[in-house]
Amino acid sequence: MRFFDLAVILAYLAAVTWFGASFRQRQKSLKDYFLGGRTAPWWAIALSIVSAETSTLTIIGTPPLAYAGSYVFLQVIFGYLLARLVISTIFLPRYFEGQLFTAYELMQRRFGPRIRKVTSGIFLITRSLAEGVRVFAISIVVSIILHTGGLASILVIVALTLFYTFEGGLTAVIWTDVIQMAMYVLGAAISFFVLLAKIPGGWPHVLDAASAAGKFQLFDFHWSWTAPYTFWAGLIGGCFLTTASHGTDQLVVQRLLAAKSERQARLALLSSWLVIFIQFSLFLTIGVLLWTLRSGAPVAKAQLDRLYPTFIWESLPVGIAGLAMAAILAAAMANLSAALNSLASATVVDFYQPLTRGRHAPAHYLRVSRLSTVFWGAVLAAIATLASQWGSVLESGLSIASVTLGILLGVFLLGVLTKKPGENAAIAGVVAGAAVMAWVKFATKIPFTWWVLIGASVTFTIAILASFVLPRTACQPAETP
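Now predict its structure.
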């Protein structure tokens, strides 16, 4: 063990945990705990969105995509930009019509309480499964540092993250995101230069070797329903994936709702794309450098996700390695804390508060929110212990989310673009979308980049058709926390 590096990691994690927990005194109500009192500046929300979108999955999962392939994954990022324009135009104006705490309150306003619970329930299931993969990704880094087993690594990270999320709410989440993102990008930049210095011939050799092997291929314009990273799958599929994840998933919508105004939310969302593009480019380049350094040596699929964190721990200078590893861990913790906070918000605001008809004092709901955070921490730890069998952490996380995000997107588009379909028709669309997505997932070879498009199209279309035969029920206004 390198005790100086370990000391740096422990000191850093202790400082971050203390910093997050220090926001406890600001938590007086659900607005404080789940929306940060709507006081965060747009640029902090933008960096927090980036952290939610990337996290450990990007840090350790993106370099292997270039190591084993090329830059074609970047085609998905162009779809991310198109999606942000769609969300800014269609969804944001509706979210800022009144004070919402979750994305699914909007569905109650349009359809009724049942569809609110259905959509919120889909989010809870999907986010817990996808976040379980992210927790497992964190455990990979911890096991490399401490040589601990998977379960012990998972418990260490979940316990630390739970502490400051429990105490500080979304305010702690956003501001720890800002610090962590700066740190892990700095760690990646240092890794880039250290890698480059280790390669004989430097960048010219990287260009020659990687170009000859097709590593710098960016665009693939052929049409395919089975290839995940083509230009069309990236632009169209990536657009639908991000429209769903950023427009209907509480993990990101919660950050947008925490903005001071619709304008600031739009500015945060659009500016986050540039940071995303730079990040993915940097981590793909690190993958190419690792491939060049190792002379293209094949790596077992199960070991690909360990490539980058292993390089950091074994090759960066003492102290710098500890700081880089600490930054990865802390960034992952920040993302995990956001997931815990969003899961708790959906649980309390969409289920518990309507059940109790809002008759309790704010302090009661704040206490239940904290207990809900602990509950979801335990759930994520349990899911993470199973995630080691699910393949690449990056693609596993994206594919899990893609199964149901299309259904959510279909319902939300139905809600904001149409007036005729009622709650019964929307539920019929959800059932049809779920059935089709189960078939796509288990009976076809269609890659995850198309799943959201398919799920949204089926849900939307069936709901429209069902509206001609199913009776419309009167919607009920969402209850205000």
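DSSP finds 19 helices and no strands in the chain.
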